[in-house]
Structure formats: C-alpha cells, structure tokens
Design goal:
By secondary structure, the chain is of the alpha+beta class. Helices cover 35% and strands 25% of the residues. Strand 10 and strand 11 form a beta hairpin. The chain binds (3R)-3-hydroxy-3-methyl-5-(phosphonooxy)pentanoic acid (PMV).
Length: 324
C-alpha cells in the first residue's frame, strides 16, 4: 500500500468585525475584511491519508462515517489540494471536535483550517502560513482566520492570491474570555453559504461595507491598546450591523431567539455597572459574551441565571493551526 498521512489541530475563531457577503462566491473572496480571535480551549483534530487503494474519498466525523453533503464539501476541497500537488489518489479523512456541533461555535473554521494543514502536509506540500490561509479560505471563508494564531485580521484582497489572514497580536497579548451562552442547539435553517449569497439583497449591505475600513481600524487599535471600552462599542456595533443586513435581506434572516435579546440587554446593563463585557453573535441564536478573563466566573454565573440559557462554554485566546 502506498499512502501518505498527516494530522493537524486548529481552533475555531470568533469574529469581532464580521465577514458577511462575498465578492467572489466560488473563491470566497469576501466583500469586506474581518477581525477575530482564535478560541484556544476548543479544537478540531483532523487526520488525512491519501491512499492509492481507495476508490473514493472517505470521511469520518466524530467517529461516524459520513456520506452526505459534508463528504461532498470535503471531497471538493481535496480536489484543490490534489490539483496543487499533482496527486491523484483519494483520501481517508478523520475529524474530531472537542466541542459539540450545533452550539454556535463555527466548527467549519477549525475544520477547514485543520483539514488544509493535514491534507497539504500529507500531499507533500510545504505551504507557508499565508498560502495555508488562502487554501483554508476555499473550504470556508472564516477558516482562513483559524490558520494564524491569536488576534487575526483577514484583509479582503481582491483575488485568490491576496485574500488571506495574518496575526497582529499573539494569544498572550490580551487575556480575554469568550463565554458562549447556548440558547439553542437546533440546526440553523439558513447556513452561512446561503447567507453570504443573499447579503447584497439587503439595502443596508452597501452602507455596512462602506463603514468596514473604519471598524477594522477601531477594533485593531482597541485590541492593540487593550482598550475594552472602545473594543466593546465597535464589536457590538459591527455585530448589530451584520444582523441588520441579515434581517433586511431577501429572504429575511432572523437568527435571534427571545433569550438572545435578553442576554444582549443584560450584557449592556452589566457593562453600565462597570464590568468590561460585550456581546457578539454569529449566524445563529447563541451569544458570545466577551469579557476580560478576570471577570469570567462572574459572567458565567450571571449568564446561567438568565432563563433560556442551556449552558455556557468558555475559552481564552488560542494559537495557530499546527501539525501533530
Ligand atoms: O466562514 P463562513 O462561511 O461560515 O462565514 C462566517 C460568517 C460569520 O460567522 C457570521 C461571521 C464571521 O466573520 O465569522
């Protein structure tokens, strides 16, 4: 048997300045730049084995064999790796998350970052970080931000060559905590692929995109200066802008549930009382409550008192995708 194998680990990330909408849907060139933090306590671990004896690609997710749309997406992604490396054998992919799927943690980001690294190493490609980030972007846009470590910016670029993410501060730079309040584990009705596709149907999207360069600068500077007040103001505003676009697109997307709004309002009250805390929400109802790490015990117990909060997961900043 002639096989080539590699294993890699990558963390999911939470965006403070959100990516919503593509300039090129197929290549996942985004309409706007974004900023995120990797979540060190959570990870996806993926092994890839290219094996000449296989008749098709195979995917095992959380120990279960998958033959549906997830396999198709992985297989399409492996085609890009095969094309780049001139390899033509099929692969066995085994992937495991240490966090439950469907909890509002974007598993596609850590999944495609880990898959990019494991598949490229197994295929004999020695990619530098920016090229690995470009490759991960083809699997899921936000995955390009899970390749570098710590606090990361994805400059939108305009082609496949210049659209990738880089780290601008290490995980040790600022001890923030993401306390994720889970209010529903139901599978979301409209995934981000479809959401990106219809973003331009909202009359607010053009205005949102116009504001992004100033959001990026404000957020990047606030992180570099560890200025929580400015960070909280811009992170919540950017999240609200993305959800305003979602709500006013066609079809209209409303991801929030009643407890989502209850948490948003509580977070603002806590901040008024002097706690450095703010919220951000992805394409789902669960709320990422960001605070300085010293306040996380307090925040977790406050969140657990809000009706509708099923559980709270938490993480600090995390490092880059790495081979193991
Ligand atoms: O990478 P995708 O296609 O799953 O899109 C991610 C979209 C958001 O999570 C809503 C925002 C972001 O920047 O992560």
């Amino acid at each position: 048997m002639n096989s080539k194998t590699a294993t890699a680990v990558a963390h999911p990330n939470i965006a403070f300045i959100k990516y919503w909408g593509n300039h090129n849907q197929e290549l996942r060139i985004p309409s706007n730049g974004s900023i995120s933090m990797n979540l060190g306590a959570l990870f996806t671990r993926t092994s890839v084995t290219f094996d000449e004896s296989l008749q098709t690609d195979q995917l095992t997710l959380q120990g279960e064999s998958n033959t549906g749309p997830a396999l198709q997406r992985v297989s399409g992604f492996l085609d890009i790796v095969r094309k780049t490396s001139s390899l033509d054998s099929f692969a066995r992919v085994e992937s495991q998350n240490n966090f439950p799927m469907g909890t509002g943690i974007a598993s596609s980001a850590s999944a495609f970052a880990a898959l990019s690294l494991a598949a490229s190493v197994a295929a004999g490609l020695d990619l530098e970080e920016k090229d690995l980030s470009r490759l991960a972007r083809r699997g899921s846009g936000s995955a390009c931000r899970s390749v570098p470590g710590g606090f990361v910016e994805w400059a939108k670029g305009s082609t496949d060559v210049d659209s990738y993410a880089i780290s601008f501060a290490s995980p040790e730079h600022w001890d923030l905590a993401d306390c994720v309040a889970i209010v529903s584990q139901a599978h979301k009705a409209t995934g981000s692929n479809e959401g990106h596709r219809i973003a331009n149907t909202s009359p607010l999207q053009a205005m949102r995109i116009e504001q992004i360069p100033s959001h990026l600068k404000r957020c990047r500077d606030a992180i570099l200066q560890r200025d929580f007040e400015v960070f909280a103001e811009i992170t919540e505003h950017d999240c609200n802008m993305m959800h305003a676009v979602m709500m006013t697109s066609n079809p209209s997307l409303i991801y929030w549930l009643p407890p989502t709004l209850a948490i948003m309002q509580a977070v603002r009250e806590w901040r008024k009382s002097g706690i450095p805390v703010c919220y951000t929400i992805d394409a789902g109802p669960n709320v990422h409550v960001i605070c300085e790490a010293a306040y996380q015990e307090n925040i977790v117990s406050l969140l657990n008192e809000i009706p509708g909060v099923e559980r709270v997961m938490r993480s600090g900043p995390g490092g880059p995708a790495r081979p193991i």
